[in-house]
Amino acid sequence: MDSNATDLIFGQRDGLASAKLMAVFGLHAASLALLFAMAHGQPASTLGRFAIIAGRWPGRLALAAALAALIAAACLIADRQAGMTTVLFLNAGVLALYVIEYSILLSRGFFKRLLGDDLQAELRLFICFVVMTNAGYFTLMFLKDILLSDSLGVG
């Protein structure tokens, strides 16, 4: 796609713009739901201390959907006011927060069980951060390709 930094992602209110907005919502809702589920499994974590996350799954799911809707609304407003680059930076910032939280949770959970106590906690956190930074990068590139697409579907 040949585009300027000032082109609008959600320019027209058509099926393509709606699909892009739903992709942004779906990506953030799934990421937040998984993050909250992981935090629920670790009550000592920062997110696990919040009552709504420590509670039952309907509350966590509703919170994930509400926050994803706020992010999608912020993307829509940013697109209308500042254009495509701002939307991509907004999503990159939110994904960076996910990467940090996932790294902390994985270093205390999965990677602690995988690597055992043979590795220092700082090294385990560094390994998790590198792994999750790569995951965040590829997620951002996937989202960028979706947001800059000219059509629905493959082709």
How would you summarize the topology of this molecule?
Layout (H helix, E strand, L loop, with lengths): L14 H27 L9 H4 L2 H25 L2 H25 L1 H6 L5 H27 L8
Helix pairs in contact: 1-3, 1-4, 3-4, 4-6
Q: What does this protein look like?
A:
The protein has one domain (15-147). It starts with 14 loop residues before the first helix and ends in an 8-residue tail after the last helix. It is globular, with a radius of gyration of 18 Å. Helix content is 74%, strand content 0%. The model is unreliable at 1-6 (pLDDT under 50). The protein has helices at 15-41, 51-54, 57-81, 84-108, 110-115, 121-147. The chain is mainly α and 155 residues long.
- What is the count of structural domains? 1
Structural class: mainly alpha
Strand content: under 5%
User: What is the end-to-end distance?
Assistant: 13 Å
**pLDDT average, as an integer?**
84
What Rg, in angstroms, do the CA atoms define?
18 Å
Number of helices: 6
Q: What is the H/E order? A: HHHHHH
- Summarize the main sheet: none
Low-pLDDT segments, ≥5 res: 1-6
How is this structure best summarized?
The chain has six helices and no strands. The protein is mostly helical and 155 residues long. Helix 1 (15-41) runs parallel beside helix 4.
Note the main attributes of this structure:
6 helices, single chain, 155 residues, mainly alpha
